[in-house]
Design goal:
The structure is a homodimer. With about 120 residues, chain A is mainly alpha-helical. Chain A has 4 helices and 3 strands; from the N terminus they run E-H-H-H-E-E-H. Chain A has helices at about 30-40, 45-50, 55-65, 90-120; strands at about 15-20, 75, 85. The first copy, chain A, has a two-stranded antiparallel ribbon with strand order 2-3. In chain A, helix 1 crosses helix 2 (about 45-50) and helix 2 (about 45-50) packs across helix 3 (about 55-65). The radius of gyration of chain A is 17 Å and the shape is elongated. The interface between A and B is large, with 41 and 41 residues. Strand 1 of chain A pairs antiparallel with strand 1 (about 15-20) of chain B, so a sheet runs across the interface.
Amino acid sequence: MATSGRADEDGPALRIRIDFCDRPSLGPGKVRLLEAIDQAGSIAAAARTMEMSYRRAWLLVEELNTMFAQPLVSTQLGGSRGGGAVVTPAGRMVIDRYRKVEAEAARATSALLETLTRDALS
Amino acid sequence: MATSGRADEDGPALRIRIDFCDRPSLGPGKVRLLEAIDQAGSIAAAARTMEMSYRRAWLLVEELNTMFAQPLVSTQLGGSRGGGAVVTPAGRMVIDRYRKVEAEAARATSALLETLTRDALS
């Protein structure tokens, strides 16, 4: 069983999206972007490591910053593409909770996924 | 907490996609289509109830029928759009397992999702 949220030769994996009632959903792409910004220190650098356009990364950050009660990414001035960006404590909390939801869901369903693989795939 | 896989006023819900290593993934859209075919008895009628084009439904059924060891939908002759379709025992098993994975993941993560809602959304 893959527990990392990525399927591998050991078996299938879950991809988790959290649907909120009246706002955008939170899935693996936004969470990976937050983690990349946290590592890279800027939206532009994070977009490059994810092979995503700067514009798309920026739009996702804007969505992330308005869908929760507090902004998840804080940007510093520095020209249209030059400034740095940091993940706020609220952002780290959202990353952490999402990864915990993912791990807990993978743990709880691993036996079911194994039987699905055994019975339906082979 | 919504446990049906659909967010409502009670809180967020998980949307689950199962990623297999070397084949298409299985998510809520394909499973709902299988359930609609099971109810409606034809791909065309199922597509209509899902407000999906017949072509898209047909392509999804073709994908479902080749990604598992056995076909999930069996189609009867009857012209290009006229024939009936039934969900096979393998198809019912896949629906059942997916819904169980979904329910188990929702159950296992409900407390985490509640704290995410409380801490990040309000």
